[in-house]
Amino acid sequence: MMTPRQMSEDRGGAGGGSSPPFRHTPLQIIHVIGNFLRIWSVYSMYRYLSETGASVILFIFSCLVPSSILFLALQKPWKGRALSNQQVVPSVINGAITALYFILWGKGLKSCGPLRAILAEYSGAVLGVLSAALYGRRGHVWKKVGGLIAMLASFYFLSQGPATEDQTEEVLGMGAMAVPILAGILSALRRVIARRVSLKNQLKRRLNAITITSATCFLFPVAMWDFIIGSTSGSSVELLFSTWAFFSTILFGVILIFYVDSIAEERLHMVFSSPRHLMVAGGCIIIMEIVYKMDFSLPGFIICSLILGFGIYEATALEHGKKGSFQQSDPLSGVLEDQIQMSPLPT
């Protein structure tokens, strides 16, 4: 007679062998849809900025104001267990980094286009090279340096225009690509700080509301200065934004993507600077490039994406096993683990 434990094991071996791969399928679908909607909002934002010539800073500020209000209404960081200064102060500082990231990313989007701006966000993986140089083994350092070289090569090819079929298009050069690349590094840094401060998922969401609100406050004087300069110079400042570009940036580009990335990180163990995340974004970019009828070369884009994915793989992989398995982490994970061991934060 079979025991209940033997019966459950038999069922798991007979009918449950294929369940693990499909267990997270709904979450993976949510991740794909969330990233597609976010990238759609990026293309609508670029179309609006390029056609109207509106101020990037004013547009981003106008999107962050309602986003911060919604985050505060959803998370209510003033309720529940009181947050300590060791948690609030770094979140406020992270708000300044987030504000600078939005400014640079918006400028890079307007000057380089959505395809290059989105791919440049993965430049934050170069922080993994710094992590290996400070806390990794020498063999891992050389692998990460190779990944860094591959990433720089992909960004160089993007700056020369391999993703476009129109040969008459002006070559951007690495100088123009430096702006979205720096924005990508700042984006990775703000994620690292947020993860360092918030040791629990619920705490992470509460502190994110503080970070976005802080970023809005830091961006306020810059937006007002841009408004004053724009109005005194005689150029018309567009304040009536396109409805779709405005609401899609708020709902999909700021709010929804935060929860989608949190689910992917907590449940799917998929960090932003990873080849899997790049593969999802690449598929969405191909669809949007075709829909918006951009000057797009599919072979050039695939080559650049493959080189970039290889660079991210080498820059973020901690350990390659004999069977081909590997462990990936966020940039500066070694630094964070060392800091957590030295000075643990209160939960």
Structure description:
By secondary structure, this protein is mainly α. It has one domain. The termini are far apart. Helix 3 packs antiparallel against helix 11 and helix 5 (85-112) runs antiparallel to helix 9 (174-197). The chain has helices at residues 4-14, 19-23, 25-52, 56-75, 85-112, 114-120, 127-135, 138-159, 174-197, 201-232, 243-266, 275-291, 298-316, 333-342; strands at residues 317-320, 326-328. Strands 1-2 form a two-stranded antiparallel sheet.
Radius of gyration, Cα only, in angstroms? Answer: 22 Å
**Residues in helices, as a percent range:** over 70%
User: How would you state the average pLDDT, rounded?
Assistant: 80
**Total helix count?**
14
Contiguous runs where pLDDT drops below 50 for at least 5 residues = 4-19, 163-168, 232-240, 319-328, 333-347
Order of secondary-structure elements: HHHHHHHHHHHHHEEH
Number of domains: 1
β-strand percent reads under 5%
* Number of extended strands: 2
Largest pleated sheet: 2 strands, antiparallel
The gross shape turns out to be globular
In which order are the strands of the major sheet placed? 1-2
Ends distance: 49 Å
Oligomer: single chain
Protein structure class: mainly alpha
